[in-house]
Specification:
Blueprint (H helix, E strand, L loop, with lengths): L1 E5 L6 H13 L3 E7 L13 E6 L8 H26 L3 E4 L6 H14 L3 E4 L10 H12 L3 E4 L2 H10 L7 E3 L24 E5 L8 H14 L4 E5 L7 H9 L6 E4 L5 H10 L2 E4 L8 H8 L4 E4 L4 H8 L2 E4 L4 H12 L2 H17 L3 H19 L3
Parallel strand pairs: 1-2, 1-4, 2-3, 4-5, 5-6, 6-7, 8-9, 8-11, 9-10, 11-12, 12-13
Length: about 375
């Protein structure tokens, strides 16, 4: 098949690259159309044509005006993509995000009708992470606008069907693959004491990720495991708790180490290699690339029972799930993992096993291919 994967935003480029490369390994002709990855230079995915067509002008600007410039440039970039689609006539288009929602829905409906090409949509966040009635209405319209919708979790599939009314036969759950590429990165170890058991909170810092609750829980962890270290590593994006983390880190007795900046791939890999557990105290989420990265590195997980976290932890057997917004339960779970080497070893082994059994990109590509074939059958009935 000739497949075009479109991700205008580029925030999930590691996901796009891994899926595109796995589809290419299955013998498909794959093109990925996106923008320049905003955080670091990524190597092009193997066997995939990469076209960074979106926001070539806007992304030259500083962060403030960049957002508004993207809004102006986005419809123009969509329009510029149409001649390419006409010329290459892909068998299927797979859209990852709809940055301008209504504009994107109209465009992709037009592409499907004008070119006779099925357009598949991945609802990465079945419910918006920053909830509001308006955002939920947009998410519903986005999901209902496509003939085939992919989601990563049973939670996402149930949301699309029961809450948004998307027919079950149009929804396919395809678990996100584990990001095993971090195993091949030369790790940069974090600056933490050599013998200390480390709980890592890594990745971009956003309000829905529950950092404030983790900071509430941390003194109770230290009371149970006095030499424990909390490593917070990531760039704050609208996260007010980052200031509190910095203040705690300024006190050596707190056991908090805060690297409040963008963390490179070697540093990210080094943090997960060094950590005794990866803590994800989220308040709202469907699925997390950090969770799948932790599994890939054999790092046990302590996660809150939100979105698809429980199903991943239970499927993998790689961690402990606690109620969201419960600092005491969170503290007990973290302390349990940090204080029990045998438990950590079992959870780590389970994580690595699950990566091969369940969270393989080749399996994800095979299931995604089945979605494409279903979409083609709908467009070209026999």
């Amino acid at each position: 098949m000739r497949i075009v994967i479109v991700d205008p935003r580029g925030d999930t480029r590691p996901y796009d690259d891994a899926l595109a490369a796995a589809l290419a390994r299955r013998g498909h002709d794959v093109e990925l159309v996106s923008c320049r990855y905003p955080h670091t230079q990524l190597a092009p995915p193997d066997g995939v044509r990469l076209a960074e067509r979106f926001y070539r002008l806007a992304d030259r600007l500083p962060p403030g005006p960049r957002r508004y410039a993207r809004g102006v440039e986005h419809p123009l970039d969509l329009a510029a993509l149409l001649p390419t689609l006409r010329r290459h006539r892909p068998d299927v288009v797979h859209v990852q995000w709809l940055p301008m929602h209504g504009v994107d829905r109209v465009f992709w409906r037009g592409v499907s009708r004008a070119l006779g090409v099925p357009v598949v949509f991945t609802a990465h966040d079945a419910l918006p992470n920053q909830a509001s009635p308006r955002r939920e209405r947009r998410a519903e319209r986005n999901a209902r606008a496509f003939g085939q919708v992919v989601t990563h979790t049973r939670h996402g599939a149930e949301t699309l069907e029961r809450r948004f009314g998307v027919p079950a036969d149009r929804i396919t759950r395809i678990p996100m693959g584990a990001f095993t590429g971090y195993r091949d990165v030369e790790p940069v170890p974090p600056d933490v004491p050599d013998a200390a058991p480390v709980a890592a909170f890594v990745g971009l810092l956003r309000p829905y990720k529950g950092l404030d609750g983790l900071l509430d829980a941390w003194p109770a962890v230290r009371a149970q495991v006095p030499d424990a270290v909390l490593l917070i590593a990531g760039r704050p994006l609208g996260e007010p708790a980052a200031e509190r983390a910095a203040a705690m880190a300024s006190d050596p007795a707190s056991g908090v180490v805060a690297e409040l900046r963008y963390v490179s791939e070697p540093e990210f890999a080094g943090a997960l290699r060094r950590a005794a557990c990866c803590v994800q105290p989220y308040l709202r989420i469907d699925q997390s690339a950090v969770l799948l990265s932790a599994l890939a590195m054999g790092c046990p997980v302590v996660a809150t029972d939100v979105g698809g976290f429980r199903e991943v932890v239970e499927e993998s057997g790689a961690g402990i799930v606690v109620p969201p917004g419960d600092p005491a339960a969170l503290a007990d779970a973290i302390a349990r993992v940090l204080g029990d080497p045998e438990l950590r070893a079992r959870l780590s082994a389970a994580a690595l096993d699950a990566v091969e059994r369940i969270y393989s990109w080749d399996v994800a590509a095979e299931r995604t291919e089945a979605v494409y074939l279903a979409a083609l059958r709908e467009r070209r009935p026999t």
